[in-house]
Amino acid sequence: MNNKERGERIRRQIVRDVRHHPTDISKHIAKIFSITPQAVNSHVKRLEKEGWLISSGTGKGKRYFLGDLREHRSLSPITPEFTEDGVWRNQYSFIFDGLPENIVDICHYGFTEMVNNAIDHSDGKHVYIYAVRNKETIMIFVIDDGEGIFKKIKRLCDLHDERQALFELSKGKLTTDPDNHTGEGIFFTSRAFDEFEIDSKGVKFSHNDQHDFDYILESEFSKNEAGTGVYMLINRDSDRDIQTIFDDYAGPDEFQFNKTVIPVKLAQYGNEKLVSRSQAKRLLARIERFQNVVFDFDGVSAIGQAFADEIFRVYAHNHPDIVLLPVKMEENVEKMVNRAMPSLGEK
Predict the structure, then answer these.
(1) What span, in angstroms and rounded, lies between the C-alpha atoms of 116 and 270?
(2) How far apart are CA 57 and CA 319, in angstroms?
(3) Facing residues of 71 across strands?
(4) Would you say residue 154 lies in a domain?
(5) Which domain holds residue 107?
(6) Does 107 fall in a domain?
(7) Are 131 and 236 found together in one domain?
(8) Order of strands across the sheet with 292-296?
(9) What is the value of pTM for the model shown?
(10) Along the chain (347 residues), what's the average pLDDT of each consecutive run of 10 residues?
(11) Which of 20, 67, 199, 277 keeps 20 to 30 A from 214, CA to CA?
C-alpha cells in the first residue's frame, strides 16, 4: 500500500469513526494505524477543509462532527441475519440525516428495495453497498455477486434473451417470486431517482430523468462476471415526491399499481425496424396485468402496418378492458396507429 492509498484509508476511517469519537478522534485513529496523533491531525484538518468534518470548541474541549459531505461503504455476507432495514438503520442512515424529507423517503425506498432484491433474488453470497452525499447529489450503489438479474429472469420466465428480460422488467410487475414480491420495486425506483441503472451480464438498462426515453446498452460488466450492479442518483434539490410517483401509476381512488409506460424504442434490437406482429407480441407480453398502458413512441421514426395492427386493433379488440394510449408519435407512426385504430368501433 503506497502513501496515497494509506492516507485515503486513514481519512475514510476518520469519517467512519468520528460519530463515536467526537473528542478523541486523533488518539483513536493513531492507535489503529500506529501513527502519532499529530499525523492524524493533518488528515482531520484536510477533511474539515473539504467539508467532510466540522468542529466546535477549542483546545481540550474541541469536538468533531460529520460535515455536509458524507459517505459509507460496506461488503456484507448475505445471511439470514442480514436485512435491508437493518443495514440502512445501523450503517447508512447517517448519510441522509438533515436532508429534505422527500429526498430521504426516495433514498430509503430505493436503498431498501435494491438491497432486498440482492438478498432475496440474487442467489449471491455477498452484497457491496456504497452511498455518497456530495454538495449536489446523493449516489447509491448496490452490487451483488449472484447469478445476474437479467440472466435469472430469462431462465425462470423462459424468455428469448437477457435483453427481453430487461424489457419486461422495465414494464413493472415482473417477479421471479410472485408469492413474496409484487415486481414493482425496480419500476418505481427507476422513476423515483434522477438517474437509475442496472448493469448485469453484458447488458445495461439506463433511465435518466433528463432524457426522453430509456436505453438498453452494452454493459461494462463482462458477460462472464457474476452479479448485478445497481446505480441510483438523485439531486439534493429535487422536488420529486415518492407518493406522487406511486399515485401517477395508480388509478383514481385505487391503491394499486395499474398503469405502465412502455418505451417502444426499447423493443428495437440494433437497427431493426418495428414492422412485424411477433415484435408487437413481444411488446404486449404481460400487459394484461395493467388497466392502462401508455406506449411511448419517442425516438421511433416509423412502424409497420402489421406491428400497429397487432397492438391497436387485434389486442385492443381482444382486451376491451385495457386502455391503450399511444403518445409522442412522429407523423409516420401516427398514420399507422390511426390506420389500425378506426376499426376499434367494430368491437
Answers:
(1) 33
(2) 70
(3) 132
(4) yes
(5) 70-244
(6) yes
(7) yes
(8) 259-263, 292-296, 323-327
(9) 0.69
(10) 88 91 95 94 94 91 93 93 91 93 93 89 91 96 87 72 67 53 69 89 76 61 71 95 77 54 77 81 80 86 89 90 90 91 51
(11) 277
